[in-house]
Amino acid sequence: MNSTLQGQGLNDFRWKNRVLLLIEPEGDLVNAREQLALLRAFEQDIEARELVILVFDGEVIRDKELKVTAIEPDNITDKNFQGILLFGKDGGIKLKEPFTVAPILIFDLIDSMPMRQREMRRKNSP
Question: Does domain 3-124 have CATH number 3.40.30?
Fold first, then answer.
């Protein structure tokens, strides 16, 4: 995660990125690590969808390498939930599912969103 993200809150990603937040408030992040392992095979897909992956361990938000960030957990209303939250660029929660979710399901959901549809049309127009 680059240093420009330090000191932000989740709302600071609004209109710039989609956020996939892996929440595992209890334990040693076994489920989050498994979800991250599945996602690692899809770096280009993640980048194309302007998706930022973060992990909330119940206390702090970590990046996808599990390094602690200064990002505040300001949009996490159910801090006891264990699973994934997908925030759209508008900041709204688009998906809330327990671990583990197949990456293709996340990408298909993102690709069905109107904003993503516009992004794909813009990219494909001459």
Answer: yes
